[in-house]
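Module 6 notes. Inverse folding takes a fixed backbone as the condition and produces residue identities as the prediction. Think of it as a translation problem where the source language is geometry and the target language is the twenty amino acids. Below is one complete input and output pair. Work through it position by position during the lab.
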C-alpha cells in the first residue's frame, strides 16, 4: 500500500514538473522579445545621440539587452575583429549562432534579422527610422507572445496534471 502511494506521488510530481518544463519557452519568449527591444532602443540611442561607431554601440546596447546580451556582444566582437563582416552580416551570424538557445519563434528571428539588412549601410537618420520600425514590429510580436503565454501556459500545466491523475488511475 505504501509503495502505491509513493508511486502515485512520484507520478503526480513528475507530471507537475513536466507541465512546468513545457511552459518554459512560453514564459521566456515575451521576456526575450522585450529584451531585444531594450537592446535595439539602446542601439538607437548610441547611434542617434552618441554618434557611437557600431562596434561600440553594439557593446553598449548589450548591457540593456538582457537575455539577448550574447547576440549583441557577439555582433560587437565580430565587428571589432576586423574579419570583414558588415554590421548586418555580423548581426545575422550572431543571431543564427544563438537562435537555438533562445525561446524565440521562427517569425521572431526573421523580424530580428531585418535589423541587419541596412545597418551601417545608410545614414544615421535612416538607420534610426528602421530601428524604430523594427521595435514596433517586435512589440507586436511581444503582445502576441504574451497572449499565447496567458492562454497556453495554464492549459499545459493543467493538462499535465490531469494526465498524471489519469496515469495514476490506470496503473493503480
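Target side of the pair, the amino acids:
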Amino acid at each position: 500500500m505504501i509503495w502505491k502511494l509513493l508511486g502515485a506521488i512520484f507520478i503526480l510530481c513528475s507530471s507537475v514538473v513536466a507541465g512546468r518544463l513545457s511552459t518554459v519557452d512560453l514564459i521566456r519568449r515575451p521576456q526575450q522579445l522585450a529584451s531585444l527591444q531594450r537592446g535595439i532602443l539602446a542601439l538607437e540611442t548610441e547611434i542617434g545621440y552618441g554618434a557611437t561607431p557600431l562596434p561600440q554601440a553594439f557593446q553598449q546596447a548589450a548591457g540593456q539587452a538582457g537575455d539577448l546580451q550574447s547576440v549583441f556582444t557577439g555582433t560587437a566582437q565580430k565587428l571589432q575583429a576586423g574579419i570583414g563582416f558588415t554590421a548586418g552580416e555580423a548581426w545575422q551570424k550572431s543571431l543564427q549562432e544563438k537562435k537555438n538557445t533562445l525561446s524565440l519563434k521562427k517569425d521572431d528571428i526573421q523580424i530580428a534579422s531585418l535589423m541587419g539588412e541596412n545597418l551601417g549601410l545608410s545614414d544615421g537618420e535612416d538607420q534610426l527610422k528602421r530601428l524604430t520600425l523594427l521595435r514596433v514590429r517586435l512589440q507586436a510580436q511581444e503582445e502576441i507572445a504574451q497572449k499565447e503565454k496567458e492562454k497556453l501556459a495554464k492549459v499545459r500545466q493543467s493538462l499535465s496534471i490531469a494526465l498524471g491523475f489519469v496515469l495514476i488511475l490506470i496503473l493503480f
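Reference fact for the lab report: Residues 2-9+18-171 form one domain.
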